[in-house]
């Protein structure tokens, strides 16, 4: 799997040759300006949660490798998906409380941009929850 990207349970898994690389750089995602992020206060909690989810996903892969019962695997996939959705909602809440509120105070183009971004993010979360 070196150097490849596979889709597993709707998640992109990046090969080991890019471990430690900047994810945005690897995926060629444009970066917003530097500065504090809305999740700064909760960063440690989000990272800890994501590490637990990473462990869950590795456990799911091991279950499949060990030919475990389908329903047991699906139960774990559901748990990992729910955990990711919880992280997403926390990030969304942080973004709205900090970034969107700041943009609303600033007004103008920045306000319109942030409101559209958050609207698009909510739409993606709703679609992914189906």
Share of β-strand residues: 5-15%
Could you give the order of the helices and strands? EEHHHH
Q: What gap, in angstroms, lies between the N and C termini?
A: 29 Å
Shape summary: elongated
Largest sheet: 2 strands, antiparallel
Helical fraction: 55-70%
- Which class of secondary structure composition applies to the elements? mainly alpha
Please report the total strand number as a whole number. 2
Low-pLDDT stretches are: 1-16
List the helices and strands and how they pair.
Elements: E1 5-8, E2 11-14, H1 23-26, H2 43-65, H3 70-106, H4 108-128
Antiparallel strand pairs: 1-2
Structure description:
This protein has 130 residues and is mainly alpha-helical. It has four helices and two strands; from the N terminus they run E-E-H-H-H-H. It has helices at residues 23-26, 43-65, 70-106, 108-128; strands spanning 5-8, 11-14. The chain has a two-stranded antiparallel sheet with strand order 1-2. Helix 2 (43-65) packs antiparallel against helix 3 and helix 3 runs antiparallel to helix 4 (108-128).
How would you briefly describe this protein structure?
With 130 residues, this protein is mainly α. Helices cover 65% and strands 6% of the residues. The chain has a two-stranded antiparallel ribbon with strand order 1-2.
List keywords for this structure.
elongated, 6% strand, mainly alpha, two-stranded antiparallel sheet, 130 residues, single chain
